[in-house]
């Protein structure tokens, strides 16, 4: 053994510093031993070819042909009952000027929230995604939780859809460009501040 060193291990975007022994003429670049698996609370699921770290916080495939780009929560967040929340996520790899699809991760055991499938254009390593809490309970999600995989898409295959009703209403608005407005008095709102003019009071 030549010595010891602390290395930052990237687990799907989650950086885990850990101490390793340096050995000469090792066949592999790195070996993750039992001490590392215990430290990260790893669970190996052979039937699904994946490893789960930190009580379902991170999932990784150990048999894969292509490295996945993963979207993870950038901060702790609380999902209130019956709401859809827009949360900030970071990507395991930076992407600039590309339209991609966020595909939800496989549903975990006892998961009570749903991740929206959506088209995004990340700003470097950061973007946002929508999470739905359809339950009647408040849900707390931890920072670094993996929520989606990034998939490339062909932007030419995206079609903007508008129904006939919306087309008609937009055409009328563009032709007339008239916005209906009412005074506060017409809305039943009365302001009694004597320092305001009649115009400022909306009468």
Report on the structure:
Helices cover 9% and strands 41% of the residues. It contains 2 helices and 14 strands, in the order ββαββββββββββββα. The chain has helices spanning 34-39, 164-176; strands at 3-11, 14-22, 43-45, 50-53, 58-61, 69-73, 77-79, 83-96, 100-104, 113-115, 118-120, 123-133, 139-141, 146-152. It is elongated and about 85 Å long. The termini are far apart.
- Could you name the CATH homologous superfamily of the largest domain? Deoxyuridine triphosphatase (dUTPase)
What is the approximate shape? elongated
Taking the alpha carbons of the first and last residues, their distance comes to 86 Å
- CATH topology term of the largest domain: Deoxyuridine 5'-Triphosphate Nucleotidohydrolase, Chain A
Question: How much beta, percentage-wise?
Answer: 35-45%
Oligomer: single chain
CATH architecture of the largest domain: Distorted Sandwich
**Helix/strand-derived class?**
mainly beta
**Residues in helix, %:** under 10%
How many helices does DSSP assign?
2
DSSP, total strands: 14
Give Rg in angstroms: 26 Å
What count of structural domains?
Answer: 3
CATH class of the largest domain: Mainly Beta
Biggest β-sheet description = 7 strands, antiparallel
